[in-house]
Amino acid sequence: MEKTNHSVVSEFILLGLSKSQNLQILFFLGFSVVYGGIVLGNLLILVTVIFDSCLHTPMYFLLINLSCIDMILASFATPKMIVDFLRDRKTISWWWGCYYQMFYMHILDGSEMMLLVAMAIDRYVAICKPLRYMTIMSPRVLTGLLLSSYAVGFVHSSSQMAFMLNLPFCGPNVVDSFFCDLPLVLKLACEDTYVLQLLVIADSGLLSLVCFLLLLVSYTVIIYSVRHHTGSASSKAFSTLSAHITVVTLFFAPCVFIYVWPFSRYSIDKILSVFYTIFTPLLNPIIYTLRNQEVKAAIWKIKTRHTNSKHAL
Fold first, then answer.
1. Which of 81-90, 154-163, 290-299 has the lowest mean pLDDT?
2. 2-312 maps to which CATH number?
3. What are phi and psi of 182, to 5 degrees?
4. What residues does each domain of the chain span?
5. Consecutive H or E run containing 285
6. 21-57 burial by CB neighbour count: b if 16+ within 10 A, else e?
7. What confidence score (pLDDT) does residue 265 get?
């Protein structure tokens, strides 16, 4: 690693969420339950959509990809954070730990932002052009939207992390968070990083803000169109839209706050980081299952089928 970025620092110390021993034990128990809920909840969506042919539609195709991203997003730092609650010294190696945390977090964040845009496009076509829905949202279009989402995530992350390879770190090496957050790590470099700070603002901040504003505009247009519909179709559309808007708000609001002003740190930033890396992946399956009659019916159907199979055996 010394040949790569001429760093003296080989590891960073993470301060975590709290220094209180009692709180750390409480956090260990609480976040263990939350992480288990994230994995089980998103796996439930994956299994339900895959095994129920009635859910083989463009919306649910995008939804299972969102579940995959959420599981990985919750796993890039949460398991280490949970283990660190039981440790006095919370360290992470620079290359295999810190660098890859930042790299994969920005891939996942960028991909999820664009995937939420793709889901907004899907809802627009389904509600505003229902007769042409399956024609417009063809497998080719869906594949293009999905690949574009992952490509944007990769370019978004690579454009920020490329310069980190040659950035020198010679101390201090303390990161005031439970994972390696790019703005915090950038401040620890042993050279002037003002231009790189502007790059982070331009890349992460503007991507978050622009996508968020575009989504708000698109959902406003959809809601305006739905107002002219009547009956159960309108009620179902509003229910679906409210779920999507909730997910968008919960995911984007913390990202916009942190990365539009990434170098003016507030104590609330740590709470917001927990929210969009841990609680949002937990809330997504809750919102998309408890508020979705089709998914609940499919879960019940799979459960009934499994119970009947056991009785038959």
1. 290-299
2. 1.20.1070.10
3. -55, -50
4. 2-312
5. helix 280-290
6. eeebeebbeebeebbebbbebbebbbebbeebeebeb
7. 54
The interaxial angle of helices 58-75 and 139-161, nearest 10 deg, is: 20
Output the six-digit token pair for 175: 């990161």
Cα distance between residue 185 and residue 263, in whole Å: 11
List Cβ neighbours of 307 (8 Å cut-off, separation of 6 or more): none
φ, ψ of residue 91 in degrees (nearest 5): -120, 160
Segment 115-162, tens digit of pLDDT: 988 988 898 888 888 889 999 999 999 999 999 999 999 999 998 888
Q: List pLDDT tens digits, range 232-271.
A: 556 666 766 777 777 777 777 777 776 665 555 555 667 7
| Whole-number pLDDT of residue 3 | 42
The model's pTM is: 0.86
Residue reference for tokens 């895959």: 50
**CB neighbourhood size of 197 (10 A):** 16
| Spatial separation of the C-alpha atoms in residues 241 and 245, rounded to whole Å | 6
Q: Which amino acid is at 175?
A: V
Q: How far apart are CA 4 and CA 97, in angstroms?
A: 15
Q: Are 77 and 278 in contact (CB under 8 A)?
A: no
Q: Express as a percent the part of the chain with pLDDT over 70.
A: 87
Residue reference for tokens 């499994």: 306
**Token representation of residue 7:** 């760093």
Determine the straight-line distance between the first and last CA of the chain, rounded to whole angstroms: 58
